[in-house]
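Q: What does the assembly look like in three dimensions?
Context provided by user:
Components: two
Sequences:
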Amino acid sequence: MSTNVFQAELISDTIGPQVMIIRFCGELDSSCIGELSKCIEEAMQGEKRNFIIADMTGVTVLCSAALGEFMGNRKRLAENGGDLVFAGINRDLKQKLTLMGANKIFSFFSDIRSAASAYKWHFQKKAETVTLTFPSSLQMVPPVRQMASRLARKKGYGTRDAFRIETIVDEVCNNAVEHGKEGSDNEIKIILTMDKEKFDINVINISDPEKIASLKSFLDQAESKKHTGADQKRGRGLALIRMLSNKMSVECSEDGTNVRVTKIREE
Amino acid sequence: MESQIELTCEEIQGKSNAKLLHFVGDLDATNVEMVLENICELYNDGYVNLVANFNRLRYVNSTGLGILLHCSKSAKEKGGSFKIASVNENVYEIIEIIGATSLLEIYDEVEEAVAALK
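A: Here is the predicted structure of the complete assembly.
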């Protein structure tokens, strides 16, 4: 069978009960509008499903009439709180669709996995977690804070939110190095859990027995919100974290310190 | 792996004991000591009127801010001034949250800060 012959196949709904993947192949020209429409209708199961991933990996042509059919169905899904997205669309076709302005209506994903990930993020509002451990050294903090900022941006957070997240991560990690056990053998663990609404930062370090007393005194001072004098070079980190975040807790023991900070998305 | 900060300075024509400092990059715990040393050297050489151009300073944290406050205080003690100009929105927010806007002399433009020098 020629690869140019139009084919449409419903794949599965394993991503979620509201999701259906349709794999299209060949040339989607005006002759296949009826079949295209029937296939999408079947995938929607009379509007029981509201998210369709159109796998366009094998599609070579998409005519304006077929695009119009996709647009009409996407509108129906969007009205039902869902979406119709394109996955695996080839570069030439993507360029043509972009010239036609279709990129302003449809989301394009490189593959089904990316589209499914976006569904989980946007529609199921599932959180994603990134865990990282790094040696307890100040030199390691800049790349860690920049990674947190980039993650926030990648997940759609605005520039200001990303900058605030970067600052919080920087301040918490600097404190973990300064007040914990330093050196390459002593790792600091950072767990970043993010969803559409908030960014949770959890930093865990190993306690240095010689620094425990000074750490507790430092935390007490921060708790009593004593003002740091203008002539003091340090001691403003915790106040800054408090002002930039929505929630903060510190658990300090002989084993380690665990700082949890929540930053709610504003942009 | 420390973050990058580039510090360059130039003479300010028509102003005595003055230098214009350009900060480029991130000012944080990994490089504050280097910045402080450079500024102290200028003070020791008699340049007590400094204008810090933050136009290309992307980031500052609480440690960096502590150093700036220290530099400002030192300049005043030496009979000079440490002025800051062209601060980006994010950095300005950090300065504001810390409550340092009243402690630091901040100007919108470098030219304004230079004009305000004695």
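Follow-up: The radius of gyration of chain A is 25 Å.
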